[in-house]
Amino acid sequence: MTALDARLREEVLRLLEAAGDGTAPITRAGHPVLRGTAQPYDGQLEPDELTALVALLHRTMRAAPGVGLAAPQVGLALALAVVEDPGVPLEAIAEVRERAPLPFRVLVNPSYRAEGDERAVFYEGCLSVPGYQAVVARHRAVRLTAHDETGAAVDEVLTGWPARIVQHETDHLHGTLYLDRAELRSFTAADELGVRWASEPRPEAASAALGFPLT
After folding, report:
1. Residue pLDDT, tens place only, 154-169
2. Residue 126 labeled ligand binder
3. Which active-site residues does the annotation give?
């Protein structure tokens, strides 16, 4: 094990000890770990340590609440993320946004590439940038390649909201925040005004009122 691997393992063990059966503090925008490239996971942890870290990420994501959480968001420069989305109850929004439920899964060393040229434009938020949302144009469909927590290969095409979640969390592992891809004129506080815009199936009224393109 290299010195870098040893330091990473020590950071993981300290985080696990501090969190216990609770959650981890979420790293906020401005912390350097969110702007660096995460270290690929290559067996730096013992199997029980990896299991404990995945469980901690899962608890922290659900408590926030969120639909995805990457290891840099708890201060760890490790290429690991968890995702899970129960979907939304409003059928019209779910249909337009293609927001099908996404069962819990672990993404180890994930990467994605666009499948086709089609883009989807919706509001997006981030647990590391609390209280705000902005419109982001994402690839409508992506091919995800990764491994799961058991080492099994993942290779599948995702569309709609699941594709958006995977892009968002994988970007975290390369130092990219959603704001780097956002229409900044759409940037809005997630209070009553923000909730009104974000609840549109497609942000057409927000586009007209705030003056940003839907492209």
Report:
1. 999 999 999 999 999 9
2. yes
3. 169
DSSP state of 139: E
Q: 3-state DSSP call for residue 174?
A: coil
Q: Which domain holds residue 198?
A: 3-210
Is 215 contained in some domain? Answer: no
> Any residues with CB less than 8 A from the CB of 143 and at least 6 apart, and which?
112, 113, 115, 155, 156, 157
Whether the Cβ atoms of residue 141 and residue 115 lie closer than 8 Å to each other: yes
Q: Is 147 marked as binding a ligand?
A: no
Answer yes or no: are the C-beta atoms of 169 and 211 closer than 8 Å: no
Answer yes or no: is 174 a known binding residue: no
Domain assignment of residue 199, yes or no: yes
The total domain count for the chain is 1
The pTM for the full model equals: 0.95
**30-163-141 Cα angle (round to 5):** 130
Cα gap 88→105, rounded to integer Å: 18
